Amino acid sequence: MKLVKDHEASDLQRFESLLSLTNLGGYDHETKRRILSLRGLSVLSYAMFSDHTLVRTAATEAMSNLVPHPEVIEFLRQPEKLKVWVAFSSDFIDNYECARAALGCIAMITSDPKVTDEFCKLKSSNKMVDSVLSSGKLELMHRVLVALLNIQGHNSNWIISSGSLSFCEAYVAKYHNHDPIDLGFSAVEKKLFMVTIDLAKDIVTGQGNE
């Protein structure tokens, strides 16, 4: 934590420190609490705005691994904080790894009704979800579809108004009978592809549409 805060530390030192915090943050609740007691939220939030791509990504991953600690959930219920995560999720062309980390966090925190309420109020959320679903990047689509399934349990109307339901219907209709081999996917992509199809089906059926 001292290295991350140290203005004289190199980007490499900050990056490696943040990687360590990512691993520690995913260990157990007590370790999360310890990181947070050392001003973890403010330190990691500041590091997320580093000009160095790897530092920014590592900080985002470290923060994500502090979920689902209540203090982190409460922090991310704030619209201005949540807006940052939506923006990072949208930036998958320039910083794929950071977007993946941000989307992983959103996939987890949208299980919280208050986070979902604020997420659905953000104008940028609709655009982000649409761009990710249309990207064809299966890892990112997987995370967004999980988030949509969470949101559906709290705000099914947003699933319709955002156009997400229409996408899921079209996605299932077009690809549910396709063999992943025919699409030229790798072994890992084949599994992800099938997962995205199943999630899209769950969203469609969850709206009462067969």
Folded structure, characterized:
By secondary structure, this protein is an all-alpha fold. The protein is built from 14 helices and no strands. Helix 7 crosses helix 8. The protein is globular. The mean pLDDT is 93.
Brief summary:
With 210 residues, this protein is mostly helical. The chain has 14 helices and no strands.
For this entry, give a set of tags.
globular; single chain; 210 residues; mainly alpha
Structural class computed from helices and strand pairing: mainly alpha
What do the pLDDT scores average to? 93
Which spans of ≥5 residues are poorly predicted at pLDDT below 50?
A: none
Q: Number of DSSP helices?
A: 14
Order of helices and strands: HHHHHHHHHHHHHH
**Cα-to-Cα separation, first versus last residue:** 51 Å
Strand content: under 5%
- How big is the Rg? 18 Å
Main beta-sheet strand count, sense and barrel state: none
